[in-house]
Design brief:
It is a single chain. This protein has about 110 residues and is mainly alpha-helical. The chain has one domain. The chain is built from 3 helices and 2 strands, in the order E-E-H-H-H. Strands 1-2 form a two-stranded antiparallel sheet. Strand 1 and strand 2 form a beta hairpin. The longest helix has 30 residues. The protein is elongated, with a radius of gyration of 18 Å.
Length: about 110
């Protein structure tokens, strides 16, 4: 599955938030040390931490087997939102990895 309205990645970074109308936001031409990059790193870390806490909560709710339909619905909604955030982080980080084909070409080049 691809991100909607995904731009070709030419060094840009998919940010961990969307526009007010739900479209992905990108940071272009960044070396990763600027204010927006640092803010994005902090938000990604918070989203990953939040996901870990939510996983623990889900384990607790499911382990007790005393949930109400409303609790399960809320848990599913929270897990869906968190999974969406964490997937965006994974896509963003994956897009910034070097292309495996170019790495293989570099390894094959005589030194």
């Amino acid at each position: 599955m691809t991100e909607p309205n995904r731009l070709p990645m030419d060094g840009g970074r998919l940010l961990p938030w969307t526009s007010p109308d739900g479209k992905p936001c990108y940071l272009l031409a960044s070396d990763g040390t600027g204010y927006v990059s640092r803010m994005a790193d902090q938000i990604e870390a918070a989203q990953i931490d939040s996901a870990a806490e939510l996983i623990e909560e889900a384990h607790h709710v499911l382990r007790t087997r005393t949930w109400t339909p409303g609790e399960i619905h809320l848990l599913a909604a929270d897990l869906t939102a968190s999974l969406t955030d964490v997937r965006r982080v994974a896509v963003s980080r994956g897009d910034r990895l070097p292309d495996p084909a170019s790495l293989e070409a570099d390894e094959m080049r005589p030194t």
